[in-house]
Amino acid sequence: MSEDFARKVEAVLFAADEPLTAEQIGDHAGEGDVKAALGELAGHYAGRGIELVERGKRWHFQTAGDLAHLLRRTREEPRKLSRAGTECLAIIAYHEPVTRAEIEAIRGVQISKGTLDVLMEAGWVRTAGRRETPGRPLQYATTPDFLTHFGLASRRDLPGIDDLKAAGLLDPLDEEALELALSGDDEEEDEVEVGDEEV
Question: pLDDT class for 95, splitting at 50, 70, 90?
Fold first, then answer.
C-alpha cells in the first residue's frame, strides 16, 4: 500500500465532521486498500495524543482517553441523565429495536414522552421504523453516536451484569432492575417500580 494513499485517508478522516465508514472514506480517497490504510494509521496513532478508533464500523480521531481531563475546562458540563432516562437507554441498547410498550413492560412503569425526547436530542437513540403489528408502533434503537460516546466498537461490547457487579456499579435495587431489563422477562413487571419520571 502506498504511503500517499494512507495520507489521503488520514486527510479525509481529519477533515470529516462525523465518523465515517470504510466505504465513505474510499469514496473520498479514491482507489486503494482503505482497510489496510486504516490499520496502518491506527497503529501510527496508537499511544499518541489523538487516536484513530473504530466505533460501530465508523472511524474517527479522538483524544486519547488518558488525556481527556485536559480538555474538560473547555467543554460544557453535560446535563445529567435521569434514572428513568438511564433505564430506558439501557433497555433500548440491550433489546433494540424495541417499542415504547416493550420498554414500559420491562421497566414496570410508564415513561414520559420527554424521556425518549432527551435520549433522541442527545443523539443516542433514533426511531427504527414501525413494528408490523396492530397499531404499527414506533421502534427505537441506539445510534452510532451512542457507541462513540460510550467507547464501544459494537453492541457486543455492552457490559453484562457480572461485569457491572465486579465494577461495583450496582446496588441491590439496580441489580434487580438490570437483570429484568437484560432478560426481557416481564413476569415481575409489577414489582419493578423504580425511578421517577423527571427528565
Answer: confident
Q: How many domains does the chain have?
A: 2
Which pTM was predicted?
0.52
**pLDDT of the residue at 194:** 35
What is the arrangement of strands in the sheet containing 125-130, beginning at the earlier edge strand? 98-99, 138-142, 125-130
Q: Could you tell me if residue 196 is inside a domain?
A: no
Short-list 13, 19, 51, 63, CA closest to 34: 13
**pLDDT of 19 over the 60 cut:** yes
Sign of the Cα torsion 194, 176, 139, 102 reads negative
Q: Provide the 10 A C-beta neighbour count for residue 55.
A: 21
What is d(CA 170, CA 30) in angstroms, rounded to the nearest whole number?
49
Helix/strand/coil (H/E/C) assignment for every residue in the chain: CCHHHHHHHHHHHHHCCCCECHHHHHHHHCCCCHHHHHHHHHHHHCCCCEEEEEECCEEEEEECHHHHHHHHHHCCCCCCCCHHHHHHHHHHHHHCCEEHHHHHHHHCCCCCHHHHHHHHHCCCEEEEEECCCCCCCEEEEECHHHHHHCCCCCHHHCCCHHHHHHCCCCCHHHHHHHHHHHHCCCCCHHHCCCCCCCC
Tell me which of 28, 44, 74 is where a domain ends. 74
